[in-house]
Amino acid sequence: MKPDNTADALRMEVRSWLHEHLPRQWRKAMTGCDQEAFVRAQREWFYKLAAAGYATPHWPQGWPGGGRPLAEQKIIYEEVARADAPRLILYFVSLYHAACTILEWGTQEQKQLYLPRILKGEVWCQGFSEPNAGSDLASLKTRAERKGDRYVINGQKTWSTMAQYADRCLLLARSGKSDPPQGGLSYFLLDLRSKGVSVRPIAQITGDDEFAEIFFDDVEIPVENRIGADGEGWAVAQSTLSSERGLTLVELTQRMRYALPRIVATMREQGLIDDGARRRELGELIPKVHAACALADRYLLKRISGEEAPGDASVVKLYYSRVLREFVSLGMRCGGLSAQFQEDFTRGGGQETGNWPVDFMNSYNWSIAGGSDEVQRNIISERLLRMPREPRNWQLSGERS
Amino acid sequence: MSQALNELRDSARQVLGKLGLAADENQTWPLLVELGWLLVALPEDDGGLEQGLAGAVAFHTELGRGLAAAPYASALLAIDAVQHAEFAQRQSFLERFTAAEYVAAPMAASHLDLRRDGSRLLLTGGVAALESADRATHLLLSSQDDRCVALVPTRQPGLSLRARNTWDPSRRLFEAQLQDVPLDPALLLAQGEAAQLLCRRLRSLRELSLAADAVGGAAAALTMTVEYLQTRRQFGRPLALFQALKHRCADLCALSVAAEAQLADTVSRYETRLAEPDGELAAKTARQLACSVYARVAEEALQLHGGIGMTSEHACHRFLKRALLDEQLGLPAAQAACDIAGAFIAAC
Ligand SMILES: Cc1cc2nc3c(=O)[nH]c(=O)nc-3n(C[C@H](O)[C@H](O)[C@H](O)COP(=O)(O)OP(=O)(O)OC[C@H]3O[C@@H](n4cnc5c(N)ncnc54)[C@H](O)[C@@H]3O)c2cc1C
What we know:
The complex is a heterodimer of chains A (about 400) and B (about 350).
Chain A: H1 3-21, H2 26-30, H3 35-52, H4 70-82, H5 92-105, H6 108-119, E1 124-127, E2 143-147, E3 150-161, E4 168-174, E5 185-191, E6 197-202, E7 211-222, E8 226-227, H7 233-242, H8 247-258, H9 260-269, H10 276-304, H11 312-335, H12 356-362, H13 364-368, H14 373-384
Parallel strand pairs in A: 1-4
Antiparallel strand pairs in A: 2-3, 3-7, 4-5, 5-8, 6-7
Chain B: H1 3-19, H2 25-34, H3 52-65, H4 72-84, H5 90-97, E1 103-104, E2 110-117, E3 120-131, E4 138-142, E5 148-153, E6 159-164, E7 173-182, E8 188-191, H6 192-231, E9 233-234, E10 237-238, H7 243-270, H8 277-305, H9 316-328, H10 333-347
Parallel strand pairs in B: 1-4
Antiparallel strand pairs in B: 2-3, 3-7, 4-5, 5-8, 6-7, 9-10
Helix pairs in contact in B: 1-3, 3-6, 4-5, 4-6, 6-7, 6-8, 6-9, 7-8, 8-9, 8-10
The complex binds flavin-adenine dinucleotide.
């Protein structure tokens, strides 16, 4: 069989599976529903996908649907986007961040313990950011003190997506002193039911609470739940962070492309379909959306062939984030005054649901989280364009360091 | 990109690099003819280098990068038209047009009416944006309704050329006026439906050549700017250390890389469909993005150079002027955006 035939066959297989299994009218059901209903629906959709092997095509051979070449994984994500299936927000960290980190750094025991549970629906969250350590993640202060065969954790994490529903947490904490600060970090797989953990949801600008704070008060973690060596946490965290690049951006850019008709629908609703200015803006947006897809595709190909250069991922993320903002703000402008009134929004519907003000607010996810636009610009200019790095030492006049 | 094309491209970059950004047509044109660059897209059977559309686009990109002052895009359009037409003198014309003889094809929309007078076909109207037409033996023209494509000898009664000085020093544009110019039946390349397909193919190719020119120009202007910021010192440090400037360069980098990826994607998907409406739309889409990115990069490049960027000896203005002209050639940017939106809305 020629490779093209395999690819086409897989595409058709996924397409017809989705046609058969995608809950009809899921958008309607997820619009205006509460979080509990959303979490239930996410679980159901996850079980179906996982059973079919479409939730974990990026896992190695031996796992359901695993061991597929990247090109085939890409087809699955393209089809999921095309079918406008729900995004698995609840499982995003489990399937990517947790799984990839454990696969790359975990011991045999850790793999055997955690991966099957992910497939059974355990939810993970990422506990990296702290109130005083965001872009400058390495400055984080949550302490992990070694006491015999355990670590004792004290401190606070924040902005942890879906932590209120999570069973486990990828925890980055400081276990020793070091200069540079990256050196003293260790990485833990934490059971969130441990004593001393409390999770408090944070209200977001949409009125929703998709992320939460996590507090640690003398929380004990057995040594065997550390992943990587003591002090190796920073390197492990890099794997976690890079796991959401590549395929995720292919899915997101494809979704954005398939969502373009939502802008047209809004133009129709608002009687703007013949409005020259809006048409022109749409005509300027479409090429950018196509370019975002082409860029994400090309980045994935580079990863496949091992040609990824430092900074490449940042180009894709920055471009996507900027085009997404343009996309949703065009939607909002087309919506006009009617887009200023509060309407129920769709959970798990991706970044371009057609509830434009909510989409607009949510577009900040991509310009702030996972390395903000500004941080990506630093990386692009320093690594790709090879412009000099910021000097480390600084002092404000009048301030003593 | 094939190994062979990679090598061709590298050597083109080297040759143009040696010529410099300010070289004129008298230096550039003979060199590119001699090096066989006009043969890049032709199949081996026609004596070509067999690199197809990807090859042509790679060369357009290099010429854009080097701000080459030669009507290469226009010449390739005429060669492509002859290659894809079925007419008696195809072979001999291909040989002539890939050697010393130059045919100018319009780089913007033309307005020509075709009239039948007995057995004769007469062309009347105006053509804008003919590059280096004073050197051309023929013009490649099509009627307004796309139903006739022909080679029209430049020196004949009823046809007049007028030089129009553009701000872009790398291009010499001419306008042509035609008054009842009779078409030589031996020089008719296509008529009827075949002509419509050929016209669409040529428009797609023209858009892609402009996109590639823009991709090359944007990359070169950005590289030049980053290099300048690294050497220029103010406040006791290289300007490249200022984050405000680094971030602007990073944005320009993301834009340029995206336009390049989009163009490459279009070439690989639509190479065989350029004569179809979706191929033309894809070409417009790639070009719309690339040319707007080029203009943005060139504008920022001048700003980031400061005063030196406003001097005629510095290359900043050359990039800027070429970028601004590129945006207006082919299908003007504003119209392209409306066309793209119109086609998309119609399909929704
Ligand atoms: C929706 C959402 C979900 C998130 N989910 C998670 C999660 O699940 N787990 C988790 O650990 N974290 C999560 N985060 C946190 C996220 O990683 C941080 O918000 C991000 O790293 C930015 O840190 P900060 O918010 O502290 O902003 P700051 O770092 O304080 O930045 C403030 C502003 O300054 C800019 N800035 C910072 N440093 C520089 C610099 N060197 N040069 C130029 N500009 C700079 C930033 O770009 C930003 O504009 C999430 C965030 C959001 C918005």
